[in-house]
């Protein structure tokens, strides 16, 4: 039978990618003075998993470097070596090399052998630098196994002592096994009379970890892992042990059998049904599971107070989500919640990962399209039903109501598939900022806020490049050198903040630095030099927008980081293409904020339908502040022209849609129609339409597919009756409203020769 | 289909022989390549788009697609501009873009040989002669063969972004 290995490769590549990203994330978060052991362990585990996978798939280059990395990490983890900044740098470099190698295997990209050699040397050098530190437990005296338990000092707090019964080992296996187990904790070993060994291992890992480590070297069926408890608790522990023995240990009668026999017979316990223990070891999948409630409870009660280490071990065992489902009783879950919140979250996150599936984006998109069509159909039914007699058709109407709710839920669920947290984007910046700051000799602290804010996957992917550019710019041009900062009375370390938040129907992503800010004079001078139309009267916001002009850079020197003036225009273009806007706020000497506002999703919109003559228009609901029917005394004019409405102390300009769009309508007096107060880009206006029709979700269809952009229209949608309604582009409408002359009634288009293209933007 | 039709339009010396859908605008007969026609349907209510030229009637929903409708009678200043149950819309598929044109009536599908087709003399009309592939004589009537893809993609039709912006 041939097996398609490629799918396994893919899984390994994906997994390694994730592990590397996670390791990098943890490395960057490490506090060098007092590293969190949990983090170090996680980094170690990542390296170890990659090593195992790489070796399995014959990628020896990766296995080799992870091995060296693992050794060094292990020393730090066991606190034989203090963590220094060099270590972190070396680890990061190793991560890069691994990524390069991974891409080399995956995409056949070039791998720089020199870089690999350099990093390997660096890691080895660092590893040997303190190799003199002795590993005391390895040289523990050989003693009779019976005496061991009591003779050995008790395991340190937080560690659990495991007793490993091993078969006869040859010298090479013995050495390898000792090395491997040495990574988990301190090992002491004893040889029994018949040549088998019994090892004691003090570790904070679980029995599962030990078994998986051992499986690299020997057949785990031939070994037995059991937890050693304090003598006083031996009685309870015996029961507890029964549960904690997760290994596929050979039976007590193994002695009488040869290793080969056992191996054949056990078959990893998957097919054996006669022995209860083995059934459990088959992860409970193959036979009805008989729980051991007594054992669990005993363990918890017995170990709770006197032996925190044992409790932790038990918890660790229970936290192996796939393998120990049978012990995850309510009791142990309660225990888990006692752990610090952070770890809980991490665990939850990792559990979520294991239960996810990978699906092609095109499948999801197809689903979204289908749901879109369903929403249209549902709206159609709803409209037909509205015409029916509610008494006679009560049941039909009720069913239709249920259909509406279900459709809406379905739509939300489907849309949420495409949503991804901003963390996906943000997580790549700590490393970049760190490297950039190092290269430029600056001190920068990166703060991220709202990383869990969700955004459509399509937008997430497209925001990466612009955001990278902005961050790079902020570090390069925004934040000053430490000396300059000190001279200005600021802390030497500059702060760069990345934030994401929902605001109305859009998501606002901001890059804020506390650097020098934008220099208005220099921008103006530069713009003049570049022949851009500028004047001294321009507002700050307008001046700042100049940096988005193509080829515009005020940097005195072009660095390899930025300053060539290419890019900001691309940033602006990319964001505009996503229906987003960019805004710059800056205070000289205090910093700059670049604020990007993006729509949440591209496909569906909550809209308010309004009528205008015989036409229906849809206004995005999130841009509507309120709707009102004005009283005559609220309508004011300025020089008899610009009409305004007085709402709650505010004077808002009235934009008459019929006049703006040259539509025929009988309603030309605002008091007979409806004013829809709209707000976009910080500006409010009152849109004057004939009346409100209703509120509904609409599927956005592009006008541009078969036609072209129309100013004031952001798209179209299909209404319940099959007709087309146009969706208003509120920001453009507000802008158009300001340049529209109401007295002549001349619309933007009609006032110009028909062949001009001004209305096409 | 679209690939071949685009190739025909793009070639410098197009062979204009082929099958044509003929339609009537006022007193004149026109022909367009049959391969560019997706379907023929009646005139439905259109949704007017603000601030567009008069010959762009608006957009309709064609099985979930938003399709613009152009009234060639207005564009060419021909015929009586009436919309009734006999008004016909020819839906064209031009390289993936779907556009509808309103005409007075559809007549026939004709196979034309190269020898039936004459070149267009220089003249003044409301469409540039560059959009006319040639003239054919069929049963004493003159048939104007229109390069509909070039015409619809042209700047004066204002149907495309790329052309109108530049």
From TrEMBL, chain A:
One CC-aspect GO term: cytoplasm
Region of interest (Disordered), ranges: 312-353
Gene3D superfamilies assigned to the protein according to its UniProt record, in alphabetical order: CheY-binding domain of CheA (3.30.70.400), Histidine kinase CheA-like, homodimeric domain (1.10.287.560), Histidine kinase-like ATPase, C-terminal domain (3.30.565.10), HPT domain (1.20.120.160), SH3 Domains (2.30.30.40)
SUPFAM superfamilies on file: ATPase domain of HSP90 chaperone/DNA topoisomerase II/histidine kinase, CheW-like, CheY-binding domain of CheA, Histidine-containing phosphotransfer domain, HPT domain, Homodimeric domain of signal transducing histidine kinase
GO biological process, one term: chemotaxis
Histidine kinase domain sequence ranges: 394-602
Residues bearing the modification Phosphohistidine: 48
Biased composition regions of type Basic and acidic residues, renumbered to the chain: 332-347
Transmembrane segments: none
Principal location class: cytoplasm
Enzyme Commission number(s) of this protein: 2.7.13.3
InterPro entries: Bact_Chemotaxis_CheA (IPR051315), CheA-like_dim (IPR004105), CheA-like_homodim_sf (IPR037006), CheW-like_dom_sf (IPR036061), CheW-lke_dom (IPR002545), CheY-binding (IPR015162), CheY-binding_CheA (IPR035891), HATPase_C_sf (IPR036890)
Domain CheW-like intervals: 604-739
GO MF terms held by the record: ATP binding; phosphorelay sensor kinase activity
Catalysed conversion reaction: ATP + protein L-histidine = ADP + protein N-phospho-L-histidine
Domain HPt, first and last residues per copy: 1-105
Compartments where found: Cytoplasm
Keyword tags: ATP-binding, Chemotaxis, Cytoplasm, Kinase, Nucleotide-binding, Phosphoprotein, Transferase, Two-component regulatory system
Role this protein plays: Involved in the transmission of sensory signals from the chemoreceptors to the flagellar motors. CheA is autophosphorylated; it can transfer its phosphate group to either CheB or CheY.
NCBIfam families (UniProt xref): PRK10547.1
Protein name (database record): Chemotaxis protein CheA
Origin species: Pseudomethylobacillus aquaticus
UniProtKB/TrEMBL annotation, chain B:
Domain CheW-like, residue spans: 17-157
InterPro entries xrefs: CheW, CheW-like_dom_sf, CheW-lke_dom
Record-linked SUPFAM superfamilies: CheW-like
SMART domains linked to this entry: CheW (SM00260)
Domain of life: Bacteria
Cellular localization per UniProt: Cytoplasm
Gene Ontology CC: one annotated term: cytosol
Keywords on record: Chemotaxis, Cytoplasm
A biological-process GO annotation: chemotaxis
PROSITE patterns the record matches: CHEW
PANTHER family: CHEMOTAXIS PROTEIN CHEW, CHEMOTAXIS SENSOR HISTIDINE KINASE-RELATED
Name of the protein: Chemotaxis protein CheW
Native organism: Pseudomethylobacillus aquaticus
């Amino acid at each position: 039978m041939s097996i398609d290995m490629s799918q396994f490769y893919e899984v390994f590549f994906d997994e390694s990618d994730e592990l590397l990203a996670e390791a990098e994330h943890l490395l960057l978060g490490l506090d060098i003075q007092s590293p969190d052991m949990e983090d170090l362990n996680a980094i170690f585990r990542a390296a170890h998993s990659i090593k195992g996978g790489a070796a399995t798939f014959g990628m020896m280059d990766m296995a080799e470097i992870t091995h060296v990395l693992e050794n060094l990490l292990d020393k730090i983890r066991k606190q034989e070596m203090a963590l220094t900044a060099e270590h972190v740098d070396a680890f990061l470099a190793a991560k890069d090399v691994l990524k390069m190698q991974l891409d080399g295997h995956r995409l056949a990209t070039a791998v720089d052998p020199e870089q690999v050699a350099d990093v390997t040397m660096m890691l080895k050098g660092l590893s040997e630098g303190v190799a003199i530190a002795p590993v005391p437990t390895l040289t523990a005296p050989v003693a009779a196994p019976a005496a061991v338990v009591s003779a050995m000092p008790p395991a340190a707090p937080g560690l659990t002592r495991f007793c490993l019964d091993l078969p006869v080992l040859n010298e090479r296996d013995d050495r390898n096994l000792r090395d491997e187990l040495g990574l988990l904790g301190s090992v002491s070993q004893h040889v029994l009379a018949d040549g088998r060994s019994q090892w004691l291992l003090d570790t904070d890992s679980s029995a599962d970890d030990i078994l998986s480590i051992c499986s690299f070297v020997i057949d785990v069926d031939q070994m037995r892992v059991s937890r050693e408890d304090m003598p006083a608790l031996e009685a309870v522990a015996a029961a507890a042990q029964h549960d904690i023995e997760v290994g596929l240990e050979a039976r007590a009668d193994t002695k009488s059998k040869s290793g080969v026999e056992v191996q054949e017979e056990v078959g990893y316990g998957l097919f054996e049904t006669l022995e209860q223990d083995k059934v459990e070891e088959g992860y409970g999948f193959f036979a009805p599971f008989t729980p051991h409630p007594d054992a669990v409870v005993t363990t918890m009660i017995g170990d709770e107070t006197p032996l925190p280490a044992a409790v932790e071990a038990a918890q660790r065992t229970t936290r192996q989500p796939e393998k120990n489902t049978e012990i995850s009783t309510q009791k142990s879950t309660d225990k888990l919640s006692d752990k610090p919140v952070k770890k809980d979250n991490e665990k939850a996150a990792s559990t979520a990962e294991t239960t996810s599936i990978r699906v092609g984006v095109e499948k999801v998109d197809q689903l979204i399209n289908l749901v879109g069509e369903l929403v249209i159909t549902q709206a159609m039914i709803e409209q037909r039903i509205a015409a029916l007699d509610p008494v006679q058709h009560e049941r039909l109407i009720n069913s239709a109501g249920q259909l509406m709710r279900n459709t809406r839920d379905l739509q939300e669920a489907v849309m949420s598939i495409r949503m991804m947290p901003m963390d996906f984007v943000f997580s790549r910046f700590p490393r970049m900022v760190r490297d950039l700051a190092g290269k430029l000799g600056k001190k920068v602290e990166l703060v991220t806020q709202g990383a869990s804010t969700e955004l459509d996957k399509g937008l997430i992917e497209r925001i990466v490049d612009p955001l990278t550019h902005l961050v790079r710019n902020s570090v390069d041009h925004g934040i000053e050198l430490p000396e300059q900062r000190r001279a200005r009375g600021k802390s030497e370390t500059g702060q760069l903040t990345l934030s994401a938040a929902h605001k109305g129907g859009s998501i606002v992503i901001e890059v804020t630095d506390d650097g020098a800010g934008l220099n208005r004079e220099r921008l103006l001078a530069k713009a003049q030099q570049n022949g851009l139309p500028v004047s001294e009267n321009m507002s700050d916001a307008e001046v700042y927008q100049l940096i988005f002009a193509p080829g515009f850079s005020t940097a005195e020197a072009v660095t390899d980081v930025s300053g060539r003036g290419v890019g900001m225009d691309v940033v602006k273009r990319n964001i505009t293409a996503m229906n987003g806007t960019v805004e710059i706020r800056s205070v000289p000497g205090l910093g700059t904020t670049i604020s990007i506002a993006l729509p949440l999703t591209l496909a569906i919109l909550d809209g308010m339908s309004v009528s205008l003559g015989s036409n229906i228009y849809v206004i995005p609901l999130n841009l509507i502040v309120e709707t009102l029917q004005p009283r005559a005394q609220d309508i004011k004019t300025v020089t008899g022209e610009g009409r305004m409405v007085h709402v709650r102390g505010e004077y808002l300009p009235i934009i008459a849609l019929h006049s703006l769009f040259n539509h025929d309508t009988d309603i030309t007096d605002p008091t007979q129609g409806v004013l829809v107060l709209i707000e976009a880009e910080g500006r409010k206006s009152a849109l004057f339409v004939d009346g409100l029709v209703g509120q509904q979700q609409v599927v956005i269809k592009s006008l541009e597919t078969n036609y072209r952009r129309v100013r004031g229209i952001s798209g179209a949608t299909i209404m319940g009756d099959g007709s087309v309604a146009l969706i208003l582009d509120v920001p453009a409408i507000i802008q158009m409203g300001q340049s529209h002359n109401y007295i002549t009634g001349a619309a933007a288009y009609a006032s110009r020769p028909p062949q001009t293209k001004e209305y096409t933007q | 289909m679209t690939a071949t039709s685009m190739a025909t339009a793009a070639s410098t010396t197009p062979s204009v022989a082929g099958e044509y859908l003929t339609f009537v605008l006022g007193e004149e007969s026109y022909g367009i390549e049959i391969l560019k026609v997706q379907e023929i349907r009646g005139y439905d209510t259109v949704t007017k788009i603000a601030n567009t030229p008069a010959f762009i009637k608006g957009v309709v929903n064609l099985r979930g697609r938003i399709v613009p409708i152009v009234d060639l009678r207005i564009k060419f200043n021909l015929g009586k501009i009436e919309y009734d149950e006999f008004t016909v819309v020819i839906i064209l598929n031009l390289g993936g873009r779907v556009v509808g044109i309103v005409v007075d009536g559809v007549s026939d599908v004709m196979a034309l040989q190269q020898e039936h087709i004459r070149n267009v003399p220089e003249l003044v009309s409301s469409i540039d002669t560059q959009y006319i592939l040639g003239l054919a004589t069929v049963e004493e009537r003159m048939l104007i063969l229109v390069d509909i893809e070039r015409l619809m993609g042209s700047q004066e039709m204002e149907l495309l972004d790329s052309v109108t912006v530049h």
